[in-house]
Design brief:
Elements: E1 2-7, H1 14-17, H2 20-27, E2 32-37, E3 50-51, E4 61-62, H3 64-75, E5 81-91, H4 94-100, E6 105-110, H5 118-123, E7 127-130, H6 140-151, E8 184-185, E9 188-189, H7 199-217, H8 219-222
Parallel strand pairs: 1-2, 1-6, 5-6, 5-7
Antiparallel strand pairs: 3-4, 8-9
Bound molecules: adenine (ADE).
């Protein structure tokens, strides 16, 4: 899978792209990530990417031209789905991440300021995605979240494929609690059933824990 990320802050991506599972996924050839500086697509000498909003109001709006041109150039080389990160988009879910993991090429546009000229959304963008009902200073962190949650779903990226099976949001449940050695830590014992070696009982316990945890912390998922 290939990601093209278009941003005014390309340097923000280095720590995410060059560490941990995302780094490994690139080394294994499972994913390719290209980060493009939006200012390279501007046509004026000041490399301006924003302007005042028509109709007045505070802040600046990202202009259409550099975003149009950046997408056009990348799409001239390969077909791709175009995503804009913005707080007014569809809230990101695990289900959406799974759908996006089926794509071959994704272009992510990182929104900024008071927003993006709506003609970009109308003409260039296939999906607007929000990572939650709060406002960040820009779309770079959401783009990194998207990159991370989609990349880890690509076949062969995680060590054990099973680690995708029991995790949170699978079957609309939160994951059960996990424990590791020592069995007694500061007087707090690991639940006995986990030490029993009785696989059926363990599975039953875990399922019940998942259901209880979901009812308590995320009753909306049960509905
Ligand atoms: N840009 C600013 N806030 C955002 C959010 N919550 N999700 C996606 N993009 C954003």
């Amino acid at each position: 899978m290939r990601f093209d990320i278009i941003t005014i802050f390309p340097d923000m991506f280095a720590p995410v792209v060059n560490e941990s599972m995302i780094k490994l996924a690139q080394e294994k050839g499972k994913v390719r990530i290209d980060v493009h500086d939006l200012r390279d697509y501007t046509t004026d000498k000041h490399r301006k990417v924003d302007d005042r909003p028509f109709g007045g109001g505070p802040g600046m709006v990202m202009t259409a031209q550099p975003l149009f041109d950046a997408v056009k150039k990348i799409k001239g080389r390969r077909k791709a789905k175009v995503i804009l990160t913005c707080p007014t988009g569809q809230p990101l879910t695990q289900k959406m991440a799974k759908e996006l993991a089926k794509e071959k090429n994704l272009i992510i546009l990182c929104g900024h300021y008071e927003g993006v000229d709506d003609r970009v959304r109308q003409e260039v963008v296939d999906e607007c995605i929000s990572i939650g009902d709060y406002v960040l200073t820009g779309g770079e962190l959401p783009a990194m979240v998207l990159l991370d949650c989609v990349t880890r779903l690509l076949p062969g990226v995680l060590g054990k494929e099973e680690s995708l099976v029991d995790e949170s949001f699978e079957g609309n449940l939160l994951e059960y609690p996990q424990f590791t050695r020592p069995a007694n830590f500061r007087g707090i014992e690991v639940p006995n059933v986990l030490l029993s070696g009785h696989h059926e009982a363990i599975e039953k316990w875990r399922k019940a824990q998942s259901v209880n945890k979901t009812k308590k912390y995320r009753p909306d998922l049960i509905k």
